[in-house]
Design a protein that fits this description.
The protein is an alpha/beta fold. It folds into 2 domains: about 15-220 and about 340-400, Crotonobetainyl-coa:carnitine coa-transferase, domain 1 (Rossmann fold); about 245-330, formyl-coa transferase, domain 3 (2-Layer Sandwich). Helices cover about 40% and strands about 15% of the residues. It contains 17 helices and 13 strands. The strands form 4 sheets. The protein has a 6-stranded parallel beta sheet, sandwiched between helices. Strand 1, helix 1 (about 20-30) and strand 2 (about 35-40) form a beta-alpha-beta unit. Helix 1 (about 20-30) packs across helix 7 (about 180-200) and helix 7 packs across helix 8 (about 210-215). The protein is elongated, with a radius of gyration of 25 Å.
Length: about 400
Protein backbone atom coordinates (compact mmCIF):
# COMPACT_ATOMS: atom_id res chain seq x y z
CA UNK A 1 0.00 0.00 0.00
CA UNK A 2 1.30 3.44 -0.88
CA UNK A 3 1.66 5.84 2.00
CA UNK A 4 -0.80 8.70 2.23
CA UNK A 5 -3.52 7.37 -0.07
CA UNK A 6 -6.41 6.22 2.09
CA UNK A 7 -7.67 5.98 5.66
CA UNK A 8 -8.61 2.66 7.28
CA UNK A 9 -12.36 3.36 7.53
CA UNK A 10 -12.93 5.07 4.19
CA UNK A 11 -16.35 4.05 2.88
CA UNK A 12 -17.80 3.26 6.31
CA UNK A 13 -20.86 5.33 7.23
CA UNK A 14 -21.61 5.93 10.90
CA UNK A 15 -24.79 7.34 12.41
CA UNK A 16 -24.04 8.92 15.78
CA UNK A 17 -26.78 9.51 18.33
CA UNK A 18 -24.33 10.80 20.88
CA UNK A 19 -24.16 13.47 23.51
CA UNK A 20 -21.66 14.65 26.11
CA UNK A 21 -18.45 12.58 25.76
CA UNK A 22 -18.46 8.78 25.39
CA UNK A 23 -20.64 8.45 22.28
CA UNK A 24 -19.23 11.52 20.48
CA UNK A 25 -15.61 10.58 21.25
CA UNK A 26 -16.15 7.02 20.00
CA UNK A 27 -17.65 8.35 16.76
CA UNK A 28 -14.82 10.89 16.42
CA UNK A 29 -12.25 8.10 16.70
CA UNK A 30 -13.96 6.46 13.73
CA UNK A 31 -14.21 9.79 11.85
CA UNK A 32 -10.49 10.42 12.34
CA UNK A 33 -9.85 7.13 10.57
CA UNK A 34 -11.96 8.06 7.56
CA UNK A 35 -15.51 7.08 8.46
CA UNK A 36 -18.33 9.37 7.31
CA UNK A 37 -19.91 10.23 10.68
CA UNK A 38 -23.40 11.77 10.65
CA UNK A 39 -24.22 13.22 14.05
CA UNK A 40 -27.96 13.26 14.84
CA UNK A 41 -28.98 16.11 17.19
CA UNK A 42 -32.12 17.66 18.58
CA UNK A 43 -33.40 20.62 16.54
CA UNK A 44 -32.80 23.92 18.30
CA UNK A 45 -30.62 22.62 21.12
CA UNK A 46 -28.33 19.91 19.82
CA UNK A 47 -25.79 18.06 21.92
CA UNK A 48 -25.85 19.61 25.44
CA UNK A 49 -22.09 20.15 25.26
CA UNK A 50 -22.61 22.80 22.58
CA UNK A 51 -23.34 25.20 25.45
CA UNK A 52 -20.57 24.08 27.81
CA UNK A 53 -17.84 26.47 28.95
CA UNK A 54 -15.37 27.59 27.84
CA UNK A 55 -17.23 29.49 25.13
CA UNK A 56 -15.82 31.74 22.40
CA UNK A 57 -18.24 34.15 20.71
CA UNK A 58 -17.93 35.93 17.37
CA UNK A 59 -20.53 37.70 15.22
CA UNK A 60 -23.40 36.28 17.23
CA UNK A 61 -22.13 32.70 17.04
CA UNK A 62 -20.42 30.65 19.75
CA UNK A 63 -18.04 27.72 19.82
CA UNK A 64 -17.80 25.56 22.93
CA UNK A 65 -14.51 24.01 23.93
CA UNK A 66 -16.54 21.24 25.56
CA UNK A 67 -18.08 20.40 22.17
CA UNK A 68 -15.00 21.17 20.08
CA UNK A 69 -12.93 18.39 21.65
CA UNK A 70 -15.23 15.52 20.70
CA UNK A 71 -16.92 16.42 17.43
CA UNK A 72 -14.44 17.21 14.67
CA UNK A 73 -14.67 15.60 11.24
CA UNK A 74 -18.42 14.99 11.43
CA UNK A 75 -21.59 16.10 9.66
CA UNK A 76 -24.60 17.25 11.69
CA UNK A 77 -28.28 16.75 11.05
CA UNK A 78 -31.06 18.06 13.28
CA UNK A 79 -33.86 15.51 13.62
CA UNK A 80 -36.82 15.44 15.99
CA UNK A 81 -37.05 11.86 17.21
CA UNK A 82 -40.18 12.58 19.24
CA UNK A 83 -42.04 12.99 15.96
CA UNK A 84 -43.02 9.71 14.22
CA UNK A 85 -41.77 11.19 10.95
CA UNK A 86 -38.38 11.81 12.53
CA UNK A 87 -38.34 8.22 13.77
CA UNK A 88 -39.12 6.96 10.26
CA UNK A 89 -36.34 9.11 8.79
CA UNK A 90 -33.84 7.75 11.31
CA UNK A 91 -34.82 4.15 10.58
CA UNK A 92 -34.34 4.76 6.86
CA UNK A 93 -30.95 6.34 7.50
CA UNK A 94 -29.97 3.33 9.62
CA UNK A 95 -30.83 1.09 6.67
CA UNK A 96 -28.08 2.88 4.73
CA UNK A 97 -25.41 2.94 7.44
CA UNK A 98 -22.77 0.50 8.58
CA UNK A 99 -22.58 1.54 12.23
CA UNK A 100 -24.69 3.30 14.85
CA UNK A 101 -22.97 4.76 17.90
CA UNK A 102 -25.45 5.74 20.60
CA UNK A 103 -25.16 6.75 24.25
CA UNK A 104 -28.62 8.10 25.02
CA UNK A 105 -30.29 7.05 28.25
CA UNK A 106 -31.09 3.33 28.07
CA UNK A 107 -34.66 2.81 26.89
CA UNK A 108 -34.95 6.06 24.93
CA UNK A 109 -34.42 4.47 21.53
CA UNK A 110 -36.80 1.65 22.43
CA UNK A 111 -39.50 4.20 23.27
CA UNK A 112 -39.12 5.64 19.77
CA UNK A 113 -39.57 2.22 18.18
CA UNK A 114 -35.87 2.29 17.26
CA UNK A 115 -34.46 -0.40 19.53
CA UNK A 116 -31.12 -1.86 18.46
CA UNK A 117 -32.63 -5.24 17.69
CA UNK A 118 -35.31 -3.70 15.47
CA UNK A 119 -32.84 -1.61 13.48
CA UNK A 120 -30.53 -4.60 13.09
CA UNK A 121 -33.46 -6.72 11.89
CA UNK A 122 -34.12 -4.13 9.18
CA UNK A 123 -30.44 -3.94 8.26
CA UNK A 124 -28.70 -7.25 9.12
CA UNK A 125 -25.26 -5.76 8.33
CA UNK A 126 -25.72 -2.96 10.87
CA UNK A 127 -23.35 -2.75 13.83
CA UNK A 128 -25.11 -1.00 16.72
CA UNK A 129 -22.78 0.18 19.52
CA UNK A 130 -24.91 0.98 22.56
CA UNK A 131 -22.88 2.81 25.21
CA UNK A 132 -24.32 3.16 28.71
CA UNK A 133 -23.23 3.54 32.29
CA UNK A 134 -23.84 0.03 33.60
CA UNK A 135 -24.85 -2.00 30.54
CA UNK A 136 -28.11 -2.77 28.74
CA UNK A 137 -28.07 -6.52 28.18
CA UNK A 138 -31.20 -7.83 29.98
CA UNK A 139 -29.36 -11.09 30.70
CA UNK A 140 -26.63 -9.23 32.59
CA UNK A 141 -28.51 -6.79 34.78
CA UNK A 142 -27.08 -5.82 38.15
CA UNK A 143 -28.10 -3.62 41.09
CA UNK A 144 -26.64 -0.51 39.40
CA UNK A 145 -28.31 -1.08 36.02
CA UNK A 146 -30.98 1.61 36.32
CA UNK A 147 -28.75 4.34 37.73
CA UNK A 148 -27.98 7.45 35.68
CA UNK A 149 -24.27 7.51 34.95
CA UNK A 150 -21.74 10.27 34.51
CA UNK A 151 -17.98 10.05 34.61
CA UNK A 152 -17.51 10.79 38.33
CA UNK A 153 -20.06 8.18 39.40
CA UNK A 154 -18.36 5.52 37.27
CA UNK A 155 -14.93 6.41 38.64
CA UNK A 156 -16.37 5.87 42.11
CA UNK A 157 -18.32 2.65 41.61
CA UNK A 158 -15.59 1.02 39.52
CA UNK A 159 -13.08 1.28 42.37
CA UNK A 160 -10.66 3.58 40.53
CA UNK A 161 -11.22 6.37 43.06
CA UNK A 162 -10.38 4.07 45.96
CA UNK A 163 -6.80 3.75 44.68
CA UNK A 164 -6.35 7.36 43.52
CA UNK A 165 -5.09 10.14 45.79
CA UNK A 166 -2.82 10.62 48.79
CA UNK A 167 -2.36 8.01 51.48
CA UNK A 168 -3.91 10.19 54.20
CA UNK A 169 -6.45 11.96 51.97
CA UNK A 170 -9.93 11.24 50.64
CA UNK A 171 -10.59 9.31 47.43
CA UNK A 172 -9.81 11.41 44.38
CA UNK A 173 -11.03 11.63 40.82
CA UNK A 174 -8.56 10.94 38.06
CA UNK A 175 -8.64 13.07 34.90
CA UNK A 176 -12.19 14.39 34.40
CA UNK A 177 -13.79 12.51 31.53
CA UNK A 178 -11.46 9.55 31.97
CA UNK A 179 -14.25 6.93 32.23
CA UNK A 180 -16.00 8.40 29.19
CA UNK A 181 -12.84 8.49 27.07
CA UNK A 182 -11.65 4.99 27.91
CA UNK A 183 -15.15 3.61 27.29
CA UNK A 184 -15.20 5.36 23.92
CA UNK A 185 -11.84 3.80 23.04
CA UNK A 186 -13.14 0.37 24.07
CA UNK A 187 -16.30 0.89 22.03
CA UNK A 188 -14.34 1.96 18.96
CA UNK A 189 -12.25 -1.21 19.28
CA UNK A 190 -15.44 -3.26 19.51
CA UNK A 191 -16.82 -1.55 16.40
CA UNK A 192 -13.58 -2.21 14.51
CA UNK A 193 -13.64 -5.88 15.51
CA UNK A 194 -17.30 -6.15 14.50
CA UNK A 195 -16.54 -4.59 11.11
CA UNK A 196 -13.69 -7.09 10.63
CA UNK A 197 -15.97 -10.00 11.57
CA UNK A 198 -18.67 -8.72 9.23
CA UNK A 199 -16.26 -9.08 6.32
CA UNK A 200 -16.28 -12.83 6.96
CA UNK A 201 -19.86 -13.42 8.13
CA UNK A 202 -21.82 -10.66 6.40
CA UNK A 203 -23.64 -10.06 9.70
CA UNK A 204 -23.74 -7.06 11.97
CA UNK A 205 -24.35 -7.18 15.72
CA UNK A 206 -25.30 -5.23 18.83
CA UNK A 207 -22.45 -4.08 21.09
CA UNK A 208 -23.30 -3.56 24.77
CA UNK A 209 -20.50 -1.25 25.95
CA UNK A 210 -20.76 -0.22 29.60
CA UNK A 211 -18.65 2.50 31.18
CA UNK A 212 -18.57 0.47 34.37
CA UNK A 213 -17.18 -2.59 32.58
CA UNK A 214 -14.49 -0.54 30.85
CA UNK A 215 -13.13 1.05 34.02
CA UNK A 216 -13.38 -2.10 36.16
CA UNK A 217 -11.13 -3.75 33.57
CA UNK A 218 -8.44 -1.20 34.46
CA UNK A 219 -8.54 -2.43 38.05
CA UNK A 220 -7.07 -5.73 36.89
CA UNK A 221 -3.90 -5.51 38.98
CA UNK A 222 -5.70 -4.55 42.17
CA UNK A 223 -8.21 -7.35 41.62
CA UNK A 224 -5.42 -9.85 40.94
CA UNK A 225 -3.56 -8.82 44.09
CA UNK A 226 -6.72 -9.18 46.16
CA UNK A 227 -7.39 -12.62 44.68
CA UNK A 228 -3.81 -13.82 45.27
CA UNK A 229 -3.13 -12.18 48.64
CA UNK A 230 -6.31 -10.78 50.16
CA UNK A 231 -4.64 -7.36 50.11
CA UNK A 232 -7.02 -4.45 49.45
CA UNK A 233 -5.17 -1.81 47.44
CA UNK A 234 -5.18 1.67 48.98
CA UNK A 235 -4.56 5.06 47.45
CA UNK A 236 -1.11 6.55 47.70
CA UNK A 237 0.78 3.32 48.41
CA UNK A 238 1.52 0.17 46.43
CA UNK A 239 2.56 -2.55 48.87
CA UNK A 240 3.92 -4.82 46.13
CA UNK A 241 6.06 -2.46 44.04
CA UNK A 242 8.14 0.50 45.25
CA UNK A 243 6.72 3.33 43.18
CA UNK A 244 6.17 7.03 43.68
CA UNK A 245 7.66 10.47 43.26
CA UNK A 246 10.93 12.03 44.31
CA UNK A 247 11.13 15.77 45.01
CA UNK A 248 13.44 17.83 42.79
CA UNK A 249 14.30 21.52 43.01
CA UNK A 250 11.60 22.42 40.47
CA UNK A 251 8.93 19.74 40.94
CA UNK A 252 8.78 15.98 41.09
CA UNK A 253 10.09 12.93 39.27
CA UNK A 254 8.27 9.59 39.18
CA UNK A 255 10.12 6.29 39.34
CA UNK A 256 9.49 2.61 39.98
CA UNK A 257 11.90 0.05 41.49
CA UNK A 258 10.23 -3.35 40.99
CA UNK A 259 13.27 -5.68 41.26
CA UNK A 260 16.37 -6.21 43.38
CA UNK A 261 18.56 -5.33 40.39
CA UNK A 262 16.77 -2.01 39.94
CA UNK A 263 17.17 -1.35 43.67
CA UNK A 264 20.92 -1.76 43.29
CA UNK A 265 20.87 0.64 40.33
CA UNK A 266 18.79 3.12 42.33
CA UNK A 267 21.18 3.10 45.28
CA UNK A 268 24.09 3.67 42.90
CA UNK A 269 22.30 6.47 41.07
CA UNK A 270 21.44 8.37 44.28
CA UNK A 271 24.92 7.71 45.72
CA UNK A 272 23.60 5.72 48.69
CA UNK A 273 25.20 2.25 48.52
CA UNK A 274 24.70 1.99 52.29
CA UNK A 275 20.94 1.49 51.73
CA UNK A 276 21.74 -1.93 50.29
CA UNK A 277 22.76 -3.05 53.79
CA UNK A 278 19.51 -1.95 55.47
CA UNK A 279 17.67 -5.00 56.82
CA UNK A 280 14.36 -3.14 56.69
CA UNK A 281 14.84 -2.53 52.94
CA UNK A 282 16.18 -5.93 51.92
CA UNK A 283 13.16 -7.15 49.92
CA UNK A 284 10.86 -5.68 47.28
CA UNK A 285 7.88 -5.95 49.65
CA UNK A 286 9.76 -4.14 52.44
CA UNK A 287 10.84 -1.38 50.09
CA UNK A 288 7.26 -1.09 48.81
CA UNK A 289 5.85 -0.72 52.30
CA UNK A 290 8.50 1.82 53.28
CA UNK A 291 8.97 3.74 50.04
CA UNK A 292 7.22 6.87 51.35
CA UNK A 293 8.32 6.85 54.99
CA UNK A 294 11.91 5.61 54.56
CA UNK A 295 13.26 5.51 50.99
CA UNK A 296 12.14 9.00 49.97
CA UNK A 297 13.27 10.73 53.20
CA UNK A 298 16.69 9.02 52.97
CA UNK A 299 17.39 10.44 49.48
CA UNK A 300 15.34 13.62 49.56
CA UNK A 301 18.16 16.05 50.31
CA UNK A 302 20.13 14.66 47.37
CA UNK A 303 17.21 14.69 44.90
CA UNK A 304 16.23 18.24 45.87
CA UNK A 305 19.68 19.44 44.86
CA UNK A 306 18.82 18.75 41.20
CA UNK A 307 16.25 19.85 38.68
CA UNK A 308 13.75 17.33 37.36
CA UNK A 309 15.71 16.97 34.14
CA UNK A 310 19.00 16.41 35.97
CA UNK A 311 17.42 13.84 38.26
CA UNK A 312 15.83 11.97 35.37
CA UNK A 313 19.16 11.92 33.54
CA UNK A 314 20.92 10.48 36.61
CA UNK A 315 18.32 7.76 37.08
CA UNK A 316 17.92 6.79 33.44
CA UNK A 317 21.70 6.66 32.96
CA UNK A 318 21.68 3.59 35.23
CA UNK A 319 18.77 2.00 33.36
CA UNK A 320 16.03 3.07 35.78
CA UNK A 321 12.64 4.16 34.43
CA UNK A 322 11.95 7.77 35.48
CA UNK A 323 9.99 10.71 34.18
CA UNK A 324 9.40 14.35 35.02
CA UNK A 325 5.93 15.15 36.37
CA UNK A 326 4.90 17.64 33.69
CA UNK A 327 2.15 20.23 33.93
CA UNK A 328 -0.45 20.91 31.24
CA UNK A 329 1.39 23.97 29.87
CA UNK A 330 4.59 21.94 29.66
CA UNK A 331 2.82 19.20 27.73
CA UNK A 332 1.35 21.81 25.39
CA UNK A 333 4.89 23.04 24.57
CA UNK A 334 6.66 19.69 24.90
CA UNK A 335 9.23 18.85 22.21
CA UNK A 336 8.27 15.19 22.64
CA UNK A 337 4.62 16.03 21.92
CA UNK A 338 5.76 17.99 18.87
CA UNK A 339 8.00 15.17 17.64
CA UNK A 340 5.18 12.65 17.98
CA UNK A 341 2.73 15.11 16.36
CA UNK A 342 0.24 14.60 19.19
CA UNK A 343 -1.53 17.93 18.73
CA UNK A 344 -3.42 18.94 15.61
CA UNK A 345 -4.71 22.34 14.54
CA UNK A 346 -8.42 22.76 13.82
CA UNK A 347 -9.39 26.06 12.20
CA UNK A 348 -12.86 26.91 13.46
CA UNK A 349 -14.81 29.79 11.82
CA UNK A 350 -15.69 31.18 15.26
CA UNK A 351 -12.83 30.15 17.55
CA UNK A 352 -10.08 30.41 14.94
CA UNK A 353 -7.12 28.01 14.81
CA UNK A 354 -7.07 25.80 17.91
CA UNK A 355 -4.61 23.07 18.88
CA UNK A 356 -6.24 19.93 20.25
CA UNK A 357 -5.10 16.44 21.17
CA UNK A 358 -5.13 13.94 18.33
CA UNK A 359 -6.59 10.51 18.81
CA UNK A 360 -3.58 8.25 19.51
CA UNK A 361 -3.69 6.05 16.40
CA UNK A 362 -0.78 6.38 14.01
CA UNK A 363 -0.45 4.06 11.01
CA UNK A 364 2.19 5.29 8.60
CA UNK A 365 0.58 3.57 5.61
CA UNK A 366 -2.52 5.77 5.88
CA UNK A 367 -3.26 9.47 5.76
CA UNK A 368 -3.35 11.30 9.10
CA UNK A 369 -6.77 12.29 10.48
CA UNK A 370 -8.62 15.08 8.66
CA UNK A 371 -8.94 18.40 10.48
CA UNK A 372 -12.46 19.64 9.83
CA UNK A 373 -13.97 21.72 12.65
CA UNK A 374 -17.08 20.52 14.48
CA UNK A 375 -20.20 21.15 12.40
CA UNK A 376 -22.82 23.80 13.18
CA UNK A 377 -26.07 22.28 14.41
CA UNK A 378 -28.01 20.80 11.50
CA UNK A 379 -25.56 22.11 8.90
CA UNK A 380 -25.84 18.96 6.80
CA UNK A 381 -29.48 17.99 7.26
CA UNK A 382 -30.56 18.79 3.72
CA UNK A 383 -27.40 17.36 2.20
CA UNK A 384 -27.66 14.03 4.05
CA UNK A 385 -31.38 13.51 3.51
CA UNK A 386 -31.09 14.37 -0.16
CA UNK A 387 -28.07 12.17 -0.81
CA UNK A 388 -29.10 9.17 1.28
CA UNK A 389 -32.89 9.22 1.08
CA UNK A 390 -33.54 11.19 -2.10
CA UNK A 391 -35.62 13.79 -0.25
CA UNK A 392 -36.61 16.74 -2.44
CA UNK A 393 -36.51 20.44 -1.57
CA UNK A 394 -40.29 20.70 -1.11
CA UNK A 395 -40.32 17.89 1.46
CA UNK A 396 -37.33 19.35 3.28
CA UNK A 397 -39.06 22.73 3.52
CA UNK A 398 -42.24 21.12 4.83
CA UNK A 399 -40.42 19.12 7.48
CA UNK A 400 -38.44 22.16 8.55
CA UNK A 401 -41.60 24.26 8.89
CA UNK A 402 -43.21 21.55 11.04
CA UNK A 403 -40.18 21.01 13.29
CA UNK A 404 -39.33 17.51 12.08
CA UNK A 405 -35.86 18.65 11.01
Amino acid sequence: MKAGTVRPLDGIRVLELGQYISGPYCAMLLADQGADVIKVERPGAGDPRRSYDPLIAKDGQTTSGGFFSYNRNKRSIALNLRDPRGQKILAELADRCDVIVENLRPGVMDSYGLAPEELCARNPRLIYAAISGYGRDPQRRGPFSDRPAFDAAIQATSGIMSVTGQLDGPPSLTVIGFADIYTAVSASLAVSLALFARERTGQGCVIDQAMYDSVVSLMERSLMLYDFTGEIATRGLDRFTPVGTLPASDGFVATIIPTDEMWRRFCAAVERPDLLDRADLSTVLQRSAHFLDTVVPEVEAWTRSMTRQELVERLTATGLPAGEVQTVDEIYRSPQVAARQLLMTIDDPVAGPRRVAKTPVSIAAFDPPPSQPPPPLGAHTGEVLTDLLGTDARQLAEWAAEGVI
